[in-house]
Amino acid sequence: MNNDLRAICKDIRCDIMTCIGHLGVGHIGGCLSIVELLAVLYYEEMNIDPANPKMEGRDRFVCSKGHAGPAVYATLANRGYFPKSELLTLNRGGTHLPSHCDMNLTTGIDMTTGSLGQGFSCAVGVALGSKLEKDGATIFALVGDGESQEGQVWEAAMFAASKKLDNLVGFTDYNKLQIDDTVAKVNDIAPLCDKWAAFGWNVIDVVDGNDVDEVLAAVRKAKSFRGSGKPTMVILNTVKGKGVKWIEELGAGNHNTNISEEQAEAAIREIRGED
Amino acid sequence: MEMRAAYAECLAKFMEEDRHVVVLDADLAKASGTRKLYERFPEQMFDCGVAEQDMASIAAGLSSYGFKPWIESFTPFATRRICDQIAISISYAKQNVKIVGTDPGISAELNGGTHMSMEDIGVVRSIPGVVIFEPVDETQLRAAMPVLNDYYGPVYMRLFRKVTPDVFGEGYRFDLFKADTLREGKDLTIFVSGMFTRDVIDVADELAAEGLDVEVVNVHTIKPIDRETVIASARKTGAVLTVENHNIVGGLHSAVCEALALERIPVSALGVADRFGEVGKIPYLREAMGLTKEDIRAAAKKAAAAK
Fold first, then answer.
1. Is A206 strand, coil or helix?
2. pTM over 0.80
3. Residue A213 CB partners (closer than 8 Å, separation 6+)
4. Pairs of CB atoms within 8 A across A/B
5. Contacts of residue A132 in chain B, CB cutoff 8 Å?
6. Which of B62, B92, B94 sits opposite A125 (nearest CB)?
7. pLDDT, tens digit, for every residue of A127-185?
């Protein structure tokens, strides 16, 4: 590992808190849970160039759980796609950083997502496109666990396996919570590893999806499956709201929650380990 | 020739010329007339199985990668079933996907009410950014296909897939955004889309013998509607009738009324009267829904008398 991924994760988390805190409300829980994945992809594993965001043959990341836009924006800004000052425009009228990812508004975003389930299918289309172009790209696509209740996710799963899209690496942010309650209580998706395996995917189960070393190892393993003739799903067992105690303790209440600037500042101190 | 055969010939030509043209099916390639192209274009044709939502979003993903996807299904499954995918994956995301729905309205015949889309134009018309086109015959379809293929952006084509009576002849010049005036008149304008167009022309010819001079305009593109032609013709004749194989709510009638909202001109409607379809052959369905040639003639007389 060349980059100090732990420090990068702290920076991304703090910027998430800054931009959502500045606005006063946002999808905090599902942003904080995926920070390690974003750091690993954008700083270590993806073939990308922030100076040339539309580079031919680049690897692509599709955030199908589009409401985690602020986490992706914080990562893109840290990586140099656009100035960090722009993060403070999140969800303001006329912004380039809307709540849900928009490929036509934000530099570095490759797919418009937000209506759950659709982004994952789009990513399958992108992976098919890359195969047809024979450009060697890897397509990474993140679904939420609540999102996995959408039938379209499983339609896409079938098609990707059927077409042997081994250039596609999926991730599930398995934080076990959704808006109304726990995923298990609302409409359980377990056993998730078995489901993806049954759909013809390689499956990697990451016990702690907020441990950057585990995530890095899993992504590298997933990439090594190219040539297997199967797409790969990495199940990230994560904590919704990871890194800020009171947000973690909100449980399902942290999906979209109010936050004051003072709370955000305190959260940043907690993330930095200054409390 | 069947419309679907002409359509498939056009697609084959596009695929031959451009490897980025791709066609996606949801287990209805046979119905769409494209099944036999799978062997010829194995890297350009993809059957998604019975998964229309997946098909629509995969097409959007392919478009984002520089491909020019066409997706196909029966009209209800190509529209109301995938309304959100058309809205978000395709149009909101500004993707270049052509959506083809076959067997519109009563032409679904023996598949009956579940497959008989009376609302597809209404569903798609309320989504920003999608062009809606319904060809009336093989000549118009063949003229339109290259235009659609070259147009960047979502288009919904409502395709009657069997043989249609000829409306257009040699020398037809197609403009996607201009309605075609098929017959000039001064007493009444009939705006017609789709499968009843030939009948409307014939009715107009018959009514001329009775002294009623009817103008007939084929509105092949329902969105964006050619407001200029619609308003000019309506002002000229002072009375309007719309004829369509679709619910009166949300289809051609609604589009024409919107264009004429500030004109003090009566607009009468002949179409499906806000009801679901049912099983049957076309002659029975036309009787059952009040869409026979006689119904068109009676509606035209009544519409002309309304001014």
1. strand
2. yes
3. none
4. 101
5. 19, 22, 43, 67
6. B62
7. 999 999 999 999 999 999 999 999 999 999 999 999 999 999 999 999 999 999 999 99
Interchain pair A127, B61: CB under 8 A: yes
Q: Which residues contact A177 (CB under 8 A, 6 or more apart)?
A: A29, A145, A146, A183, A240, A251, A252, A254, A255
Letter string b/e over residues B230-239, b meaning 16 or more CB atoms within 10 A of that residue's CB: bbebbeebbb
pLDDT in tens, B99-146: 999 999 999 999 999 999 999 999 999 999 999 999 999 999 999 999
Å between A123 CA and nearest CA of chain B: 6
Phi, psi of B176 (to 5 degrees): -55, -30
- CA B25-B29-B35 angle, to 5 degrees, is 120
Place of tokens 């594993």: A45
B60, B66, B87 member nearest A122 (Cβ): B60
Using CA atoms, how far apart are residues A123 and B166, in angstroms rounded to an integer?
A: 43
d(CA A15, CA A31): 11
pLDDT for the residue numbered A275:
63
**Mean pLDDT rounded to a whole number for chain B:** 98
The pLDDT assigned to B183 comes to 98
Residue A222 to residue A265: CA distance in whole angstroms: 37
Residue to substitute from B21, B64, B67, B83, interface A, most A β-carbons within 10 A: B64
Q: What is the ipTM of this complex?
A: 0.96
* Phi, psi values for residue B242, rounded to 5°: -110, 140
Does the beta carbon of A163 lie under 8 angstroms from any beta carbon of chain B? yes
Q: Which domains does chain A have, with CATH numbers?
A: 3-272 (3.40.50.970)
Q: What are the start-end ranges of the H helices in chain B?
A: 3-17, 29-32, 37-40, 52-64, 75-78, 83-84, 120-125, 138-150, 197-209, 227-237, 252-259, 282-288, 293-305
How far, in Å, CA of B297 to CA of B276, rounded?
A: 24
Q: Rounded to whole angstroms, what are the CA distances from B106 to B77, B97, B141, B196?
A: 15, 26, 20, 11
Contact flag A111-B53 (C-beta cutoff 8 Å): no
Closest partner residue to A121 (CB to CB) among B22, B61, B93 is B61
Selection from A174, A188, A176, A175 nearest residue A235 by Cα: A174
Q: How far apart are the first and last CA of chain A?
A: 28
Name the closest residue on chain B to residue A152, using Cα atoms.
B54
Q: Pairing state of beta strands B131-133 and B221-223?
A: antiparallel
Cβ–Cβ below 8 Å for B58 and A124: yes
pLDDT of residue B163: 96
- The torsion angles phi and psi of A83, rounded to 5 degrees, stand at -65, 145
CB A160 within 8 A of CB A124: yes
Say whether B72 sits in a helix, a strand or coil.
strand
Taking the CB of residue B245, how many other CB atoms lie within 10 A of it?
Answer: 30
The answer for residues whose C-beta is within 8 angstroms of residue B54's C-beta and 6 or more apart is A121, A124, A152, A155, A156, A159, B48
Cβ-defined contact of A155 to B94 (cutoff 8 Å): no
Q: Is the pLDDT of residue A1 over 80?
A: no
Are the beta carbons of B61 and A117 separated by less than 8 Å? Answer: no
pLDDT value of residue B154 = 98
Residue of B58, B62, B66 with shortest CB distance to A159: B58
Query: In this complex, do A159 and B61 lie within 8 Å of one another by their Cβ atoms?
Result: no
